[in-house]
């Protein structure tokens, strides 16, 4: 198992939900973690809480994955502050769910730009840093990246794209010693799509579970690569 102390990470969309859970788990291992949000205030609030929890150090950055220059600036700030980039987690995502008849052009474009193009921009911006560190790139896709459903045309398209893109990228960059994994969660207890987590979500995957998974991937011997991981609740209500 690799020691993660003082390793550095950049997590997009890290002010809440899965990104926040990953940040907390990595800081518990002594890592230095930068999180991005489109809102500086939201990032600052999350970092204030993270710095109370972990052994590592947290940094708040305002960035928008839909804008390549914004992503490049976030990467540059991490490397300027800490001198290296060991892990980049492309987590930022949104969901618009409607039939193909009702979904708007704007909703389609925002979904693709955030969920798919944002992943491309993230690895593109971080690639040179990851080459230098022989680092790790992780995308957060979804079980919706292989399973389609009604009213999911935009979301399915974006997550199918993320799954395929990440696996192809893995083949492209492994020659540089960069490991690439896509994590595909099912139902997670988060604020996604304006959901408010509650005790009713106890059956779902929890953000700390995914955080533990990322920390375990980072600590794994670099000779081994779990390239695609599907994650499901053990006992969803339909199975009880």
From TrEMBL:
PROSITE patterns named among the record's database cross-references: ADH_SHORT
Annotated Pfam families: adh_short
Taxonomy, superkingdom: Bacteria
Residue span(s) of domain Ketoreductase: 7-189
NCBIfam families linked to this entry: PRK07326.1
Family the UniProt entry places it in: Belongs to the short-chain dehydrogenases/reductases (SDR) family.
Protein name, per record: SDR family oxidoreductase
Source organism of this protein record: Belliella calami
Lineage: Bacteria, Pseudomonadati, Bacteroidota, Cytophagia, Cytophagales
């Amino acid at each position: 198992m690799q020691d993660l102390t003082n390793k550095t990470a950049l997590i997009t969309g890290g002010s809440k939900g899965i990104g926040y859970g990953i940040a907390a788990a990595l800081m518990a291992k002594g890592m230095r973690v930068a999180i991005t949000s489109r809102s500086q205030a939201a990032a600052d609030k999350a970092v204030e809480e993270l710095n109370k929890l972990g052994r590592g150090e947290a940094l708040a950055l305002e960035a928008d994955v839909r804008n390549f220059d914004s992503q490049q600036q976030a990467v540059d700030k991490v490397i300027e502050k800490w001198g290296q980039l060991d892990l980049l987690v492309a987590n930022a995502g949104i969901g618009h769910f409607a039939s193909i008849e009702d979904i708007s052009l704007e909703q389609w474009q925002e979904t693709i730009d955030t969920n798919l193009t944002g992943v491309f921009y993230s690895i593109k911006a971080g690639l040179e840093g990851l080459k230098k560190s022989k680092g790790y790139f992780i995308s957060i896709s979804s079980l919706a990246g292989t399973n389609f459903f009604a009213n999911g045309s935009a979301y399915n398209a974006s997550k199918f794209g993320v799954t395929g893109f990440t696996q192809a990228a893995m083949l492209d960059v492994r020659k540089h010693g960069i490991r690439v994994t896509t994590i595909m969660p099912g139902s997670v207890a988060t604020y996604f799509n304006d959901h408010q987590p509650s005790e009713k979500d106890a059956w779902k995957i929890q953000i700390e579970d995914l955080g533990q998974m990322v920390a375990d991937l980072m600590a794994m011997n670099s000779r081994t690569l779990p390239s695609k991981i599907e994650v499901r609740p053990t006992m969803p209500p339909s199975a009880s």
